[in-house]
Amino acid sequence: MTVTLITGANKGIGFETAKQLLALGHTVWIGARDAERGEKAAADLGARFVQLDVTDDASVTSALATIDAAEGRLDVLVNNAGVLGAGPIDGPTALHVFDTNAVGVVRVTEAALPLLRRSANPTVVNVSSSMGSFGVVTNPDRPEFGMPLALYAASKAAATMLTVQYAKAHPEIKFNALEPGTTATDMTAAFGIGRPVAESAATVVRLATLGPDGPTGTLTDERGDLPW
Predict the structure, then answer these.
(1) What is the chain's alpha carbon radius of gyration, rounded to the nearest angstrom?
(2) CATH label of the domain that carries residue 46
(3) 119 partner at 20 to 30 Å CA-CA among 70, 78, 171, 225?
(4) Residue-number span of the structural domain to which 189 is assigned
(5) φ/ψ of residue 79, rounded to 5
(6) What is the 3-state secondary structure (H, E, C) of the chain?
(7) Of the residues 59, 128, 129, 133, which is catalytic?
(8) How many distinct structural domains can be found in the chain?
(9) Does residue 34 contact residue 15 with C-beta atoms inside 8 Å?
(10) Residue 143, Cβ neighbours under 10 Å: how many?
(11) Is the CB of residue 45 less than 8 Å from the CB of residue 201?
């Protein structure tokens, strides 16, 4: 049985991804910062819960130790936790956004690597964004061109670069980043936009279920590769 950890999975795309992977037979661990919300989400889905705050080293270390003790390996890691960082820009806000969206990927991935190496088909999916693509945000025909989300865009560009560098450093593990699609979640509520979360989660599931010969080091959406 495939063992999967999804960060930030108590709601939104992470929750729906967990639901779809459970339906495919995965053993899914829901990582969430808030224990009460995470435990409820796991109970609702029939998943397992582990407290995991991607901005806290001790929390991340403890979470992966818990999974190690219970499963002995990790087959799929979905780095999904993220924040938007909309509004006024200042140093503390920038530190928080980068700590969650980029440094959080490093914390969790580094803690997970020993467990992933024990898998026959180790896979890491980083939920990034087309907002982190230079080719997209400089294209006036794309809606991202006019979206003033500097910290989110920059942190997601960092997350995508981390994906590529991890793929180069660990060729035995698949690392891919994706734009899941504009989705109606708490993060996009202020914009009043987004499609049903199940549609976007399906793009995550596609990368989370790649075979051993699947691609690595990519940034894609459901239509294919995104320009850098």
Answers:
(1) 16
(2) 3.40.50.720
(3) 225
(4) 3-225
(5) -85, 90
(6) CCEEEEECCCCHHHHHHHHHHHHCCCEEEEEECCHHHHHHHHHHHCCEEEECCCCCHHHHHHHHHHHHHHHCCCCEEEECCCCCCCCCCCHHHHHHHHHHHHHHHHHHHHHHHHHHCCCCCCEEEEECCHHHCHHHHCCCCCHHHHCCCHHHHHHHHHHHHHHHHHHHHCCCCEEEEECCCCECCHHHHHHCCCECHHHHHHHHHHHHCCCCCCCCCEEEECCEECCC
(7) 129
(8) 1
(9) no
(10) 11
(11) no
- For residue 28, the one-letter residue type is V
pLDDT tens by residue, the chain, 228 residues: 999 999 999 999 999 999 999 999 999 999 999 999 999 999 999 999 999 999 999 999 999 999 999 999 999 999 999 999 988 999 999 999 999 999 999 999 999 999 999 999 999 999 999 899 999 999 999 888 888 899 999 999 999 999 999 999 999 999 999 998 765 455 544 555 555 788 889 999 999 999 999 999 999 988 899 887
Between CA 157 and CA 126 the distance in angstroms is 11
Among 130, 133, 155, 156, which one carries the catalytic annotation? 156
Question: Is 128 designated active site?
Answer: no
Measured distance CA(63)–CA(215) in Å, rounded: 28
The residue count of the chain comes to 228
> 198: number of CA atoms within 13 Å, CB side?
3
